[in-house]
Write a sequence for this structure.
């Protein structure tokens, strides 16, 4: 019989018999342990929601309105959770969402690498954010056989955009995940209160800072003149996307493309995959929970695959 993903529990109980405390963060201890381990400003950035947090809460609450019906006594007894996505066979329908700043969530500030290593160990694909502490070409070397995806914030500068897309393709990423809901930054009081925006301190900018199409606009290397580098970044980051932009992206790459943050049940064309998400309630506050919108998106998508996140918590 094929490996069962639940089998790791046997190891936990067996270790406990030998007096070894589990290294897995079960239940709410994930959040508590993060708050103990991370620098305060990193923890705050990671947990901040837009506005008063109602969309972040709604995303989670929506899950208690739905349930599953476990099916028993069906054959074959083997569970096959594998799926086809972006032309790849994946062992399970799980993936790691892009988290800009995950680079800061490791003691050496190379959390992107740690997440890629976890992806290699589990076979769960990793989506690398545009915002990384380690440049994209170096991160993917740690992902082993597991396919990785690259999340793109399309810059207004087309030369830089083309370069980022090309680098993702030549480094070996299997898909582009184009985020469309963040061309203006969400209003996040928890971060605003403390002026907490790590990119403005030069963190997680490696994909920009290692790109000649970014640095050629600067008089000095970013490390020597952060304010000028950030002023340029601010100029090129914000870029509201249209279907026309998507068609342009297609001319730049053979990679399959997902649109992340598109939740309305009307679909133009050009996306290989629709990724239904409201950015975990970090962008538009008062946005309807993603789970509520999912049926409409799936219906409209027809045969186009749909990815999903927002409000997914632990294994419960
Ligand atoms: C700290 C943090 C950083 C994020 N950075 C990105 C990013 O760089 N690009 C992106 O497309 N989404 C980003 N997201 C959104 C996630 O990819 C995902 O859509 C969201 O976390 C899902 O919500 P959930 O955590 O409630 O499941 C970020 C989310 C968090 C919490």
């Amino acid at each position: 019989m094929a490996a069962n993903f639940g089998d790791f529990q046997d190891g936990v109980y067996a270790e406990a018999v030998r007096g070894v405390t589990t290294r897995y963060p079960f239940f709410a201890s994930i959040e508590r342990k993060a708050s103990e381990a991370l620098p305060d400003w990193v923890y705050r950035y990671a947990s901040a929601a837009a506005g008063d947090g109602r969309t972040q809460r709604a995303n989670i609450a929506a899950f208690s309105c739905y349930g599953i019906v476990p099916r028993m006594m069906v054959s074959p007894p083997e569970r096959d959770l594998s799926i086809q996505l972006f032309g790849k066979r994946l062992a399970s329908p799980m993936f790691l969402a892009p988290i800009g700043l995950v680079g800061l969530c490791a003691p050496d500030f190379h959390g992107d690498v740690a997440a890629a290593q976890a992806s290699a160990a589990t076979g769960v694909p990793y989506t690398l954010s545009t915002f990384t502490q380690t440049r994209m070409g170096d991160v993917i070397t740690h992902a082993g056989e597991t396919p990785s995806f690259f999340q793109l914030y399309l810059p207004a500068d087309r030369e830089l955009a083309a370069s980022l897309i090309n680098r993702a393709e030549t480094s070996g990423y299997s898909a582009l995940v184009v985020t469309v809901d963040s061309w203006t930054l969400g209003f996040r009081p928890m971060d605003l209160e403390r002026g907490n925006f790590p990119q403005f301190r030069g963190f997680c900018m490696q994909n920009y800072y290692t790109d000649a199409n970014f640095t050629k606009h600067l008089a000095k290397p970013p490390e020597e003149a952060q304010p000028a580098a950030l002023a340029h970044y601010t100029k090129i980051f914000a870029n509201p996307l249209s279907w026309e932009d998507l068609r342009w992206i297609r001319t730049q790459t053979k990679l399959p493309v997902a649109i992340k943050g598109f939740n309305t049940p009307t679909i133009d064309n050009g996306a290989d995959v629709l990724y239904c998400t409201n950015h975990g309630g970090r962008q538009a506050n008062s946005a309807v929970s993603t789970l509520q919108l999912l049926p409409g998106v799936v219906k409209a998508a027809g045969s186009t695959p749909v990815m999903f996140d927002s409000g997914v918590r632990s294994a419960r």
Remarks:
- The pocket of flavin mononucleotide is lined by residues 45-46, 59, 97-101, 129, 131, 151, 179, 260, 277, 279-280, 282, 309-312 (CB under 6 Å).
- Strands lie at 83-85, 88-90, 126-128, 148-152, 175-179, 257-260, 273-276, 306-308.
- The two ends are 25 Å apart (CA to CA).
